[in-house]
Amino acid sequence: MNLAKIMTPKILTAHIHEDDSVRQGIEKLKGHGYTAVPVLDSEERYLGCITEGDFLRHIMNIGSTDLKDHENYRVGDLFRRDFCPPLKIDADEQQVLDAVLKQNFVPIVDARGCLCGIITRRSVIKAFAEIMKGNDR
CATH number for the domain including 117? Predict the structure, then answer.
């Protein structure tokens, strides 16, 4: 399976950097309407994902919903590195299926670990449907 054909490229994918403020992270998540987004380092390497729940726990720990109060905290202190493991761009079909059964989206990284984009459950199902449609002919 050619993941490059079915992935949403990084340029079209919301992501956050570990040194962004928590306020920036909350605004990005809210602005895009996602429940989780990839977190990258300054070299664009994928580190993990941050979720609404991560931000909510932070807000509860700080005890303030005023966004200004969250400007001094960094996303890098909140996200879970083990959440939403990535696949390499050359992953095989079985690895892709295993990953999308566990995750709504899967980050795709290159050999350096840099984010290339994401694949979604929907994009994978659509790709397999096209493959099956071709086999019916």
Answer: 3.10.580.10
Report the C-alpha dihedral over residues 122, 128, 134, 137, rounded to 10 degrees. -100
Structural domain including 33 reads: 3-135
Question: pTM (2 decimals)?
Answer: 0.89
Closest CA to 9 of 113, 136, 109: 109
Neighbours of 104 (CB within 10 A): 13
Number of compact structural domains in the chain: 1
How confident is the model over 58-85, as pLDDT tens digits?
999 999 999 999 999 999 999 888 889 9
